[in-house]
Amino acid sequence: MIESAITLGDFVAFGSYLMLLTWPTAAIAWIINLIQRGQVSLKRIQDILDTPPMITDQADVKTALSLTKPPKIEVKNLCFKIQNEAPILKGISFTIQPGHTLGIFGPTGSGKTVLSRVLARLESVPQNTLFIDDIDILKWPLKAYREGLSYVPQESFLFSDTIAQNVAFYQPESKSVQSEAVEMASQNASIEYDIHRFPKNYDTLVGEKGVILSGGQKNRLALSRALYKPHFILILDDILSAVDHKTETKLIQNLFKNKGQTTSVLISHRVSALTHCDQILVLEEGHITDSGTHQSLLEKEGIYKHTWQYQKLENTHE
Amino acid sequence: MNNIQQDKDYLIRYWQYLKKYKRLLSVSLILIPCITGFHLVQPYLLKVGIDDYITQGNLTGLSRVALFFGMAVVGEFICRALQSFLFQYVGQKTISTLRVDLFRHVSHLSSSYFDKTPKGIITSRLTSDVESLNESFSSGLVTLVGDVLTLIGILVFMSILSLKLTLVTVVFVPPLILIINFFRVKLRFYYTAIRVTVGKITASLQEQLQGVEIVQLFSRESKNYHHFKDLNKAYRKAVLGSVYFDALLYSIVEAMSSIVIAVMLWYGFAQHLNSAITIGVLVAFIDYIQKFFQPLKELSTKFAVLQQALAALEKIFGTFDIQEHIPSGSLTLPDSKGHMIFKEVSFAYPGHEDKPILKNVSLELNVGSVTALVGPTGSGKTTVGRLMSHLYTGYSGHILLDNHPIQDLDLAFLRSQIAHVSQDIQLFSGSIAFNITMGNPKVSTEAAIDAAKRVQAHDFIQKFPDGYDTVLTHQGGALSLGQAQLISFARALACPSPIILLDEATANVDSLSERLIQKATELIFSQKTVLVIAHRLSTIQKADHIYAMKDGEILEEGSHKALMAKDGFYAKLFQLQFSHL
Fold this sequence. Notes:
The complex is a heterodimer. By secondary structure, chain A is α/β, with parallel strands linked by helices. Chain A contains ten helices and ten strands. Chain A has two domains: 52-148 and 231-318, Rossmann fold (3-Layer(aba) Sandwich), CATH 3.40.50; 157-230, 3-Layer(aba) Sandwich (Rossmann fold), CATH 3.40.50. A six-stranded mixed beta sheet of chain A has the order 6-7-8-3-9-10, sandwiched between helices. The radius of gyration of chain A is 30 Å and the shape is elongated. The relative contact order of chain A is 0.14. Chain B has helices at 2-18, 22-54, 59-107, 111-116, 119-161, 163-171, 173-210, 212-217, 221-273, 279-321, 381-388, 411-416, 432-437, 445-454, 458-463, 481-494, 511-526, 560-566, 569-578; strands spanning 340-347, 358-365, 370-374, 396-401, 404-405, 418-421, 430-431, 471-472, 499-503, 529-534, 545-550, 553-558. In chain B, strand 11 (545-550) and strand 12 (553-558) form a beta hairpin. In chain B, helix 1 (2-18) packs across helix 10 (279-321), helix 2 packs antiparallel against helix 3 (59-107) and helix 9 runs antiparallel to helix 10 (279-321).
């Protein structure tokens, strides 16, 4: 400018433009950093989105199917293992007639829970192994099948909400909690007495912020949740081991009250819970080693009879 | 007032953590005025360059000023980089100490705290709250000091150059402050909303994922989807709200600064024509005005960041203030055999004082004998076990170990005396061997294997390809519930504690294994003090002494024979149990 090549105004404007340039230059480095971070995150999200559901409807699913009555359940030569681990179920076959109750008895680690999870379609099964009303389970729409099924897992999980909301967890679209049905379900699960002793009865909070429930109470609440949901198949995985005997007797009475209206599977390692079942399977190390009614099993030598004798012995020991 | 006092209190406590890095901190604080100085001298040099050299046509002089200008730019760069690094360094160091301290504090809290505090909240205290404190510390506090210094510095430089022009600029400040304050209130509202909804989203996600199978089985996917969608929408709204006001504020301040510059050009040029100021002063002033509005805008957002820091401080030190840990005594009894007495103990869980769970419970656990506690579910059996281990406090009556109240005992000592197999099985990520020994150097591998054999777990453990080195993942993973229970039973047997507390220890185990376990543990039990809690009576008939509980009270006690002969509550329980067989 001193040499009159530019004016003073040019110089000031140039300076200002130069200042404006600095920020974008610095920002480029920052943005490159951001883009890289974004790419990593995007990939991780994409990985989850790309994971196909293990259990899902296949292409040839019969969409019109739904459970409207207690079905026949048939298992044919079922073998099951989780990924590359040793097989858990080996060549399991049995049939439950509509409305009948199947008892599954077996020692610790024999595969009872896995079998119940297979029946609840929480595990995927190969073709031609599980049939509901003579139709392969893989042809049943997952949603329709689960809609007609109630399942109580061994370890009960409750949500941080009121007791009423937990019992009425099954809420089809636009339906609200039906308090009569909630009370009915609690009665049948023998938890009603306990609920009435809580400070706010059915509005008592459970879970992380709520009352402290004993193991047996949690189990029975989970049972009432399953009973509240309309169902034609009921699967109970060893929920009686955490309740006292008086409650167990009452529960079994309640469960068999509406016999014939559901096809049920009752899992237990306690003989006393299974005496009323139409048919009992004895499961040992993934095999069915015996089956029959309570009476017929007592006539054979085996783990079922031995367990029963042990308990009986203990009884007369006194 | 009280709030301010509290904030001050938290800041003082935070200072305790920062204090360790006083030297680094003071270095970086000294750097702030340096940065401001280098930053503000630049327009002044510009003025000198124009007035003294450019208009005079002095090229050599101009080169010298340009050199100074360059040095100022480089100086600013170096100081800024150094200062930013130092602050991040101190911030990260402090935060990591703070987090470890907080973790230690939380892990010592009593069960009553965990009963009522969702785990999601505790997790967010240890992660996002601590992180947010760090962010606001390094970006907020530092620049806040820098900004204030810059503002003051600019005013000083401007006043030196021209008092009149300075006054013209300052006129615009009060309305700007009003505007900024309005936005501050709005932004604070949205920032709070963001934090609250993030907390809700985390808590909801955690629970829905834990209970995902139940959700699927009960066809709740769509309802939960809508619930989550609503939460997500609330979050999006809060974020967009803050972005909206932030963007608006940014533009308004930007526009203001342009207006002031325009006014300055018009007014300043008039002044220049009157020869009141030189052209260099005018150019420098325009530069200063640009530099003046920047920190002013920053201050408003920094204020919000500071609010966040205070909120995080409050949450963090509020958690430190929770003194819900069980006070530990100092007494240890090295030769304790585990003789335990409950004398008229009554107890209600905190928050449920209207519903006492134990009423006047008296019982005695003798050395070398098995005591059993039976009763229906919900009768308070598990609570007796929890009080024994001093997991809760606030009971009335006395609990004595070898005639010493357990309050007088060192807590770690007391708990090391009791091997507890609880109803809720807890396995940790690690090998099976680790899950039995729990890393206790007093438990040898042989002892662990012996314990596993006694609880009939050895066989199935051996069947795993890696045997005892099989690594368990999430809550047992490959193990069935019964097997997991056996491992936690083995853990208690292998532990050298004199007292063994079995709370439904074999509830998920089949009867035949149970009988084998009973035989295998007889010898061990005869040397220890054992409390068996059960609702299944087959397991406790051989107990030396039985207490029968109902609704928090002990109704009957005695041996199995004596109680059967009495034909009371216990006999009724017993008959019911075996009526089917």
